[in-house]
Structures are given as structure tokens and as C-alpha cells.
Amino acid sequence: MTSTDIKYWLMKAEPDSRVVKGKDVKFSVDDFEAARTTPWEGVRNFEARNLMKEMSIGDKILFYHSNCKNPGIAGFAEVSKEAYPDYTAWDSSHPYFDPKTKQDDPKWFMVDATFLSRAEHFVPLSLLRHIAESAESDPPDEFAYIGTDGMKAMKAMPLVTRGRLSVQRVSQECWEVIQMMSEKGGWEEMTFGKKKPSTSKRPRQAASKNSRATDDNGDGKVEVDAGEEPDVKPRKGKKRKASDVAGTQEVPRRRSVRTKKD
């Protein structure tokens, strides 16, 4: 695979403990580094599934901490096995069992991902949003090395324009800028993400059941990233993943306890 053939992706997982069906579905960069290679199971969103089906061996992945107090890019990985049926979907003991899918007609797929490295400097979502909002200006001295082109690339990144989907495309330009930022840092003493106080006297309305969320497979599950979109509380059933997956399918590696939001 040449560099022009490589595609770039962002994939989310939860770094904090959360128990579903008696199993902890967290999967942090520490867990990923320990597992080294892991099946990316538990995705229950059609758009995210379809993106995984486009992945090729050698494609690069930004590993993203989601649904936590400080979401952001924590590491780098690559696709090590192309999409194959997600056998956890028909395991009734698995947190994300789907009774509507069958082994002879699988609905959900997963890839294998292999850990490459940690981000030397964690790249927070608040920083990426700050860059996107300031894209028409020159970058501040703290990370002037990304240049104006880097600022503009961040503005178009799906993570800041859309946010919720657990698997996302990443442009090569964004990949290179984020990789550079993770190596060089410089923003650690800066403050991002503080919201201006509201001047409206109208009470804030609670988010509706389907507010700013996707339910592509019609099963009531929605794309939610707590800590990123504070108007909507995360709903159960969207995270992945769990250990002790039943079955005798391949991937004889150490089982991870990753969770992905779909």
C-alpha cells in the first residue's frame, strides 16, 4: 500500500468504567496499549459500520477518548484486519447483543485495530474546537507550527463539525496536523472550552429524546458523546466493548474491554 492509498480514520472508545450487563465496557489508551491488537466490536450504527467496511489493512486511526470529562485524541493505531462479521451481536450475554441479526445473515461488522503509539501530548477536543473557531486567524504562538492551512484543515474536521459518530473519516491534512501537535504540544498553559454566560432569561429546554442525535438503525440507540455535547445525556446501550465475549471465533488475542459509542 502506497501513501496515496492509505485512508485515515478516527475511532472512539470510553476510558472510564461503565458496567453494562455486569461487564465493564471501558477501553482506554492504557487498555489498548496492553491489548496491542483488538477487534473493534460493538458498533451498532449503520453509518459507522459502513465506514469500517471501507477500511483497508494499513489505514491509520486516531484513537479518541470519548464520553469523559476531557475527550480528545490519546493515541494512534492502524487497521490490521479488514471488516468481518461482528460475532458479539449474536452473543446474548454481550452488552450489545442484537437479536435481529443472525449468524447466517450478519448485520454488524468489525475490523481489527493494532495500537501504534500514545499521543505524547494529549490533544483535547476543546483545543480542536478552539482552532476550528479561530480558523480565519493566524495560529497563536503556542502552536504556530501548524500554520494557517492547519487551522483551516481543523475547521473542516468531522469531529468538530459533526462530532457524534463513533467512526469518522479524517483527511490526510488533519492527520498530519494532529500528529505534529501530539509530538510538539505547546498549548498546555492555555485555557479552552469556557462558555460565555447566557444572557437569556428563558429557561433552558431539556433535550428531546431524539435531539441532535442519530438513530440510523431504528433501534432507539443514539450517537452520544458526554462531555462533548452537554445538552444531551448519554443513553445506555451505545458503548462498546466488553470482555469475556462468548464464541470460538478467531482473534485468539487478549480480550480487551473496549467500549465504542455508535
- Which band does the percent of strand residues land in? 15-25%
Q: Which residue ranges are poorly predicted, with pLDDT under 50 across at least 5 consecutive positions? A: 204-239, 241-252
- Oligomeric assembly: single chain
Largest sheet: 6 strands, mixed
SSE string, helix = H, strand = E?
EEEHEHEEEHHHEH
The chain-level mean pLDDT equals 80
Helix content: 10-25%
Q: Could you give the distance between the termini? A: 29 Å
SSE-based structural type: alpha+beta
Total beta strands = 8
Q: How are strands sequenced across the largest beta sheet?
A: 4-7-6-5-1-8
Shape: globular
Output the radius of gyration. Answer: 19 Å
Number of helices: 6
Question: Can you tell me about this structure?
Answer:
The structure is a single chain. This protein has 262 residues and is of the alpha+beta class. Helix content is 19%, strand content 20%. The chain contains six helices and eight strands; from the N terminus they run βββαβαβββαααβα. The protein has helices spanning 29-35, 46-53, 125-133, 147-155, 158-161, 172-184; strands spanning 8-13, 19-20, 23-24, 37-39, 60-65, 72-85, 109-124, 167-170. It has a six-stranded mixed β-sheet, with helices on both faces. The protein has a two-stranded antiparallel sheet with strand order 2-3. β2 (19-20) and β3 (23-24) form a beta hairpin. α3 (125-133) packs across α4. The chain is globular. Mean pLDDT is 80; it is low at 204-239 and 241-252.
